[in-house]
Amino acid sequence: MYIAQTVRFCTQEGEMHFMLLFSRQGKLRLQKWYCAYPEKQKKKTTRELIATVLSRKAKMCSFLEWKDLKIVYKRYASLYFCCAIDSDDNELLTLEIIHRYVELLDKYFGSVCELDIIFNFEKAFFMLDELLLGGEIQETSKKNVLKAITAQDLLQEEDAADNIMNDLGII
Amino acid sequence: MNAALDTVSGIRQVFNEAVERVKSPTPIRLRDLIRQIRAARTAAEERQVVNKECALIRSTFRDEDSVWRCRNVAKLLYIHMLGYPAHFGQLECMKLSASPRFTDKRIGYLGAMMLLDERQDVHLLLTHSLKTDLNSSTQFVVGLALCALGTIASPEMSRDLAGEIERLIKSSNAYIRKKAALCAFRIITKVPDLMEIFLPATRQLLTEKNHGVLIAGVILITRMCEISQDTLQHFKKQSRSRDGGVSLGRSIPDPEDKVTSPGGPYVVNLVPNLVRILKNLIMAGYSPEHDVSGVSDPFLQVKILRLLRLLGRNDDDASEAMNDMLAQVLAVNILGRFLLNTDKNIRYVALNTLLKTVQADIGAVQRHRGTIVECLKDPDVTIQKRAMELCFALLNGNNIRSIMKELIAFIEVSDSEFQAVCSSKCVIAAEKFAPNVRWHVETLLQVLRAAGNNVRDDVVASTIQLLTEVVQQHSYVVGEMWSALRSATAQHQPLLQVTVWGVGEYGDMLVTGQASDSQVKVSEEEIVAQFEPILGSSQMSIVTKEFALMSLMKLSARLTDQSALKTIQHLVNGFGCHLNVELQQRGVEFSQLFTRHDALRPALLERMPPMEARASGRGLTNGTAAPAASVAATPAPVAAAAPAAAQSNSSALLDLLGGMDSDVSDVVAPVAPTAAAPPAASNMDLLDLLGKKSGVWRIKDDWLRVVFAGVCIEKVAQVAIRDKSWYGFVCIVRYFLWFLHPSNLKLVSSIRMYMTCMLTQSHWGGVSALTPFKCRSVWVFHKFLCPLCAARS
């Protein structure tokens, strides 16, 4: 029975339990879970959290308590960036992490907007995976993160080039 | 010439093949699918598009098509994010991650992280491709595998791959090292036993230049220290080593990297290292890549501080080493400024920090009391909550009045959860710090009024108890009660209960004009008239009515006016046919107090003495019946209200009658069932109830009905034992009292046997916490019944 098990959310995982990105209409644009919930639980959590955050007024502070987690959220243009951390974790640092993520996306896409994230969601994921691992921050230098992403994109392109040449029988 | 022709035909062939491929249906691109879905105007349309695409994707999966697998899985992931099921793509993700192409691997691992989790056995199949990729020569492939492992590692996977990770932590490539360290962090979280494997590697991690590896290392070490006390000690007492130096780019290497306390063991290779890193971060000049608003790499600083906190706890030497540095790092006492800031986040942080420091240093926080109280009015719930907690922490004898005023205003406007919590705390605080009785009483009434129906149950009981204790001020109390009673409505039931109790208990003072300073004189009819709407209204809860009925009875002993008494009797009789069995029983039994047992009435309804402190009574724990001896030894929490049978000598009666309790479910003067008008159920039905072997009587009503109807009490006792029912036991006690008669002695002693047997049973089913009612029944049994039986037999 999951009911008893999921009363306490994941124990002792990394700092961040999950991150959600959603629009003002409540449409999910990105979700990254750092602990194992069953699928139903994820859906329920997402729904409830989106409703709670969207009901907050503009001037309210970025932190709220929800179940036994702390939720840190920030709105950038039409997107809400929402993270869940333990109640004794540092919420201001999480805000910084969110901001760092947004800066990276901005640099990468060149003045990022919601559409970029919709049509390139996999790239947004890749970026997040270079910033956080297992819920903890892995790279504090913006330059290094972008360097890694660019290099991997290059690998992808080389791959694609190889493929075409393979198909054409040139290689 | 031939060679040229060959080349041309070769090219033509390739061209034709390409055209063929263009003509055959290829899966649409991810981008186009997203456009299509966004173009759908209704949910149904969207579902249609999605389902169609899912069907296509499924069929290509079935066909084992490797060419377009990557694109299809990417589309599937998008569909999954919209909320549609996508579990059929799990295996495909794994096939993708096993592909040699980097693009495939990227999408494959992403899919694995999104669709798989450690709860499903399927994820173990990933282990093989992970292992291969962890050994790849391309750093980014290794990176992908490490990332996937760090996100979804399960205990089994962790065990399998721990060795690889350990090797990778020592890699020469910083990119891999940092990811491996975080992977190790995840692994030891899942399987703490594996921690030993990673211990040797940690030493190197702190000597890094690269911030990424450094922060990963700090995180890893922090988790190690959190998991195991031994490891924590190990880090603290690491012996002197040659490679202690740390340098970070522009930093100044410090030759003295070890601290030894005089005569003590070597302390902390770790702490000086961390301290020096921190120092370098703060002192060193501007580093653009790590800078955040003028602070150099706050992420790393915070993680180091956290680790230092862990290491320094309860350890003087370590703390010494850190002190100097920390004083420079930490913000100075500017929290007050934060509180006034308009940015809500800053306010929140300030309040939070103050909450933590108030334990250590109240004086400093008192300075900001005014601002904190202002924060109570903030529309933001999170800030309100923090401000409320802080207010309670700051309460003392000096500021209680002003803060309490604000808190009461806060209760009035807050939502029900807050009201319940805040009112309970206010009552406790009022008790602790009340400057005088009058203020106390006023405040309690105000709190009850402000919180309406959202007061916690124990608040009513504790308020009443407090009121009984202030003996000198009863005249003042009753005056207040009277005015509060006039103004209370169905929205303030706890307030009603308290005031009704007060008026009932001290009503005579109201009449004689002793009440409060204004010497208000209230006529007896007026008092009784105040009760009628309460008893009659359907909006009042049963509990409130029980209180009111009891108080009315008490008034019958306090008032002297005949017409008022007649009215009371009339009202009480009316309850004899109430639908609620508890009220009905009270109605009937109280009516008996006017007729058959009229002589007892004044004594029964005497004023109550002050209740003893709450703590002493609750000696019995949840559900276990203490052995008979110890029960007799614990003092009665509240004096019982059980009247004796008419024949018992008056000293025993007076003994029993410490007074009446206002608490809800007890109170009743049991009436000989045969004299009363029994409820509709006939004896036959009730015997059927008794015969029920399987059904357990859980409802109070069943017991009441049976005892009421005078069904053979022995049978009832047997059922009570069988069902282990407290309420049954209690009903029998009441029955017992009324039937105590010299001719019934044999019955009495056999029932006494039953009751002792029940008391010594170790487990009572279906019982929540022991209430005063139950305690009292046991007390009655031992104090009154046993001696009587002993005297007679």
Automatic annotation (TrEMBL), chain B:
Recorded superkingdom: Eukaryota
Entry annotated with the keyword Membrane: yes
GO biological process: intracellular protein transport; vesicle-mediated transport
Primary location: membrane
A GO cellular component entry from the record: AP-1 adaptor complex
Region of interest (Disordered), residue spans: 236-259
Ranges where the Clathrin/coatomer adaptor adaptin-like N-terminal domain occurs: 46-226, 329-597
InterPro entries: Adaptor_Complx_Large_Subunit, AP1_complex_gsu, ARM-like, ARM-type_fold, Clathrin/coatomer_adapt-like_N
Subcellular compartments: Endomembrane system; Golgi apparatus
Keyword tags: Cytoplasmic vesicle, Golgi apparatus, Membrane, Protein transport, Transport
Keyword Protein transport listed: yes
Protein family membership: Belongs to the adaptor complexes large subunit family.
Protein's name according to its UniProt entry: AP-1 complex subunit gamma
Native source organism of the sequence: Amphibalanus amphitrite
